[in-house]
Structure formats: C-alpha cells, structure tokens
Amino acid sequence: MTMKMPGGGSARSRLCRLIDDSLRPYAELDAVSLSKDEEKKILLALSQVFRQVQLWTPEFDSDTDNDSVLILDCACGCSSGSSPHLEETQCLTKIVADLVVLLTVQSKYVQHLASNVLVVVSEFVAASGSSWDSFIHTLCACLDVAITIKLTFDSAHWPTGADDFNCGSSSFVFSLKQKLKDANWSAAASILQVLRTILKHFNPEDDIQLFTSYFESVNSCLSNMPWDLFTQIFVTPNADAQKSSGADAVFHRSVFLGNFIQFLCSLVEQSGAVEAIFDPSKKRPDLSITISLVPKLLNWCLGNQGDIVDKGISLYFRHKLLVLMIRLSFHTSLDYYLLVSWLKLMHGYFGELLRRPITSFESGQDDCLEGSPFVLSVSDAEEKELCSLHLQRLAIFLFLRCSLSLISLMCGTDEKCPCATRNLCFPYEPTEKLDCCGRKKGLLELYNWLQGHLPVDTFVDHKTYLQKCVDFALSFLQLYIHEDDLLFKVLLQLFNVRFSAEEWFQNQKGDSHYVKGDMLSHVSNIFNPVHLFHLFLSELHYDHQVLLDYLISKDTGTSCAEYLLRCLRTICDSWHIFVEFSVDGQFINQSSCKKRKVMWDGSMVRAEKSLTPVKNDRTLLLLEKECNEESNCGCNDHQTIGQPYKDAKECLLSLKTSVESLHQKNLFPYNPKVLLKRLRRFQELCSKDEQSDF
C-alpha cells in the first residue's frame, strides 16, 4: 500500500518532504572523505526513495488536485508566504539540487543510484501534470553550473543565462554554487546521463508539451556553454601536461566526453519527432550547435587527448563520433563548405580506416559475433579486429555519403565549367587541383579513394579491368553484409552515383583508355547498381526467404523495400546488363555457413548448412571439373554468363510468390502493392526473354 505523508498537501509536497526527510542527514557530508558506513546509509536511503516514488507515480489521477498548494508546514524549508506556483518551483529546485549534490560523492554506486532517483522523479513530475518546466530547467542549470565550476576552477565566470531557468534570482545561482562546490567531471557526466535517459523515455506523440520544454531548456543550456574553455582544458601542447594531472582526472574527463557525445547522438536521433513540433523553416539550435561542435569534439577526443586515454575509450570515441556525424548527415542539410570540411576531418582523423585494404572476406562467421555477449569468448586480437572492421564500415560509409552528397549538389555549376559536360574526363593528371564545383570535388574524392584500392592504370586490357571491378565490388559488399543496418544504407547511398546504362553497355567492350581518362566511368563501373544487386543476391545464396526476412524486419524493412524498388526499376531499364552479367568464369566464393548452391549448366551441387566454409576456389574448380566430365557440358564463358541471371530470376520470382501469399492473408506488415507491381514487371521481362530464346 502506498505510504501517505502526514498533513496532506499536493503531490510535490509529498515528494519534497520524502526526499528532505530521507536525505537531509547526508546533505552536508564531505564528498571526498565518505566512509563505507556513510556510503551504505546513503545507498539505503536512496533505494527507499526510489521505490516510494515508483509506487506513487502510477497512482496519479488526472482529475485530482494537481494544482493544490504546498502544505504550510513543509519540512523542506520553502517559504509559506509565497505564491503557490513559486512555492512549488522552490520545492522542485531544492529536490533537484539535493539529488545532484549526491552526484558529487566519490562513489560510483551513490552516483548511479542518485541518477536513477532523478529519472524516476522526472517521471513523477511529468505524470503529475505540472511544474515540468521548473524541473527540467533546474536540471539543466545544475549541469551548466557544474561544468562551469570545473572549467573555471571556481572563478567568477558564471553562465550568463543562469537567470533564464525560471529558478528564481541570482540567489539561486549562488546557492547552487555552494551546493555544487565539489562538482567534478563525473558529476557532470551523470547529469548528462540523466538527461539522456529522460529523453529516451519520452513519447513525443503523447508528450508534446514536455518534449518542447525539454528541448528549449537543453538548447538554452548548450547555447550558454563556454565552449572555448573546453579546448583549453582538453587540448594541451603535449600529452605530458595532461599526464601530470593524474590518470583519474584524465579518465573522468574521458567519461564526461563519452557521455556528452552519447547525449548529442540521442538529441540528433530525436530529430524526426522534434521537426514535427518545431517550425521547419527555422534552424534548430541543438543541431546547429552540434554541427559546430564536431571539429572541436574530434580535437578533444582524438587529438592530444587521444594519445593518453585508454585504447578502449579511444575506440569508443571513434565509434560514437562517426555515429554522431552520420546521424547529423541524415537530419540536416549539409552545404558545400561543411561537406568539404568534413571530408578533410575524415582524412585527418579516420584516414587509416579509409586506406585500409578492402580485401575478400573468406569467412564472415567471426564478424557476426560483433555486439554479442559471446564476443567475450574471442581473443583480444580478434576483438580488436572486430572493432576495426566496424569502424572501417562507419568511416567508409560517412566518406561515401559526404562525397556523393557533394556530387548531388548541382547548384552553382557554371555551364562553362567542365563539370557541365557529359563526361568528366581528365585532360591531364587526376590529382590536378579541381575545385570548380561540388560535383567535381565529390567525384575527385571518390576517384582518389578508389585509386588507392583499385588503380585503373595497373590493368592492361579492359576485360581484366572489368573483372577487377567486380572483385572489388564483391569485397566491398562482403564488408557490410553482416551489419544489416549499414548494409542497406550504403547500398542506397551508392544509387547517387550517376550510371548511364546504355552508355556503359556500349563502352564496356572498348579499350582501357576510355576508362582511364574518365573518372565518372571508373566510379560507376565499380559501383554499378546492377552488378551490386547480382552480388548481393549471390551473398544471400539466392535464398528468397532471407530477402523476405529483411522486408518484414522492423529494423531493415523500410530500407530493404526501398533498395529492392530502386534495383528493380534500374534492372528493368538496363535489362541487357542484368541478363548478361557474369563474373567472367570466376565462381563467387561462398563464404557463409548458410545454405548455398553451386550450379554449372543444369547440373547442381548443393551444400546444405555446411559447417566448414570453403577457404579457396580449389574445391570449386575440382567440383567443376567433375561436373564437366560427368555431363560433358564444357562450362565455357558463354554458358556461365547466364547462370547469375537464372539464379536471380528464381530468387525474385519466389519472393514475389511469398509476398503475394502473405499479402492475401493480411500477414504482411505493410502494403507491398508497389513492390509487387515492380516484381510483376520483372516477371514480364523474364517471360519475354524466354520467348525470344525459342
């Protein structure tokens, strides 16, 4: 049964009395010299408060006296002569301040539990229907003051917007300064974690007013932050200066930076919900501030600071910074100068990941452990390799997104500019400085990156060149095949590469001089969407059930459907390329443990759920020889050419049958009519092709 506080009063009155009675004895404790016995008492008191607030929250009745005043004898010390709203505000600010003080205690257990209490208090206040503004503004004010204390070493510099938090006059700031005199980076990190947890608990559709107040308070806090002082603290001329401050200080600063980047990632992630609330014609302050902070964050985390932090923390920084930049790229409109700036940052901070060879992955089984608790069973070297592969995927994807976004920025291209011509050929060396427009800049970035992995000048004849393009595309696809969320993002992104099907089809039998002189041709040959789709299906072993799983998945359904729709349209417009695709007699290495088929001119060797992946092509060549001897089929180039088409046709037509069946039974999670329409068009072209063979 819920405990009732004596004397009655409003919901905030009960909450204020509970926290004041439970935590008052520990408000003035020395945060540095906390004994074990005192730590246990604080943990017990926090646990009791946590459970009680959890019990109270669901019992709110929206028709009850939510606006009633605080009781006159409230033990928290709020003035009884003030207005009800002011008394309520004073009560909440004291609750938040007292709990935030416990975040300065040198105990990770106390900090963790105090953070949890702040989260449940936020749920309590939100459910009560009033005073949410005061609560969230006070929490942001505590973050502002805690960071400023640490940055200025208790100097006289205080946030200029401190009085804008509806928390009273400057006396509140002075009182908060006294309470948070022992604030450290760990306390600031905990406040950020509380704010992030509160944000993740929101349902924007139901809590529009709460959501709006939250972002207004956060924007005000971020806008008032003295960011220049961060650079003075986090970046020094040499690592020895930071080492002298102690390993613990460096660690706490790293934890704060990690939580801060994580918090920014969550803010950006909620952009879709925020855009539905705020005026879309106005720039959102949180996004503008975050974009401006990207170069600073890279410098703070991966500059001199990155030379002395733990390697695991450094990997985390790299991961989160890439995630932050990728999310920003989806939720903001990046202009030419920002894209060029980001590409420079990519080369400066993630250049080794971009230059790392994209080799053929003989087995993806180890890679599928990424993000799993079973990863603990692998060695340190294997775990490092997994992290490196993940970072490589993120870095290459962001690089491609920036480069291709530049290519799509057609505005400002002069008709006299070489970029306005049909082909982008280099009259001299490809490394020539060409900054005439975004399209040229983006293509040059892509071309130079590809030259590091697949130099076009090393191929003597065009036939070898095309084979190498397919080999590289396969290795590129295998890099992403085990990370579904990135797989379809990168495949969809590559559709921004201009691809003229008929022009490519006519020139693929030409000499290599054409390709060497045309960087657009080189880029589109490697990332040919028809070829990539063939390779994608082959990596799935032409199993339409895998495609169906992608389509009905909550995580990949939308992106997979969009990818299939765009591929089917391209295929129908480039039918000859789709039908005549081949790997020039080379068999694609089936490296997964899933069911796979190896076919040669009507004869089939089927491997079901193989436990040992094929390590090289020697086994396949032996099987091919045995097949040829038994069937006397003579697997020449002409006969091999049609096999990928046949396998792909069987897969897509089987997918069509399955989707139609589920749709008829109302079991498909969304309306697949557009997809079915494209698949029927594909089926019609297949039928016409079969009729032309007779």
Automatic annotation (TrEMBL):
InterPro entries: Lines_C (IPR029415), LINES_N (IPR032794), Protein_Lines (IPR024875). Pfam families: LINES_C (PF14695), LINES_N (PF14694). Residues 456-580 form the Protein Lines N-terminal domain. Residues 648-684 form the Protein Lines C-terminal domain. This is Protein Lines C-terminal domain-containing protein. Coiled coil: none annotated.
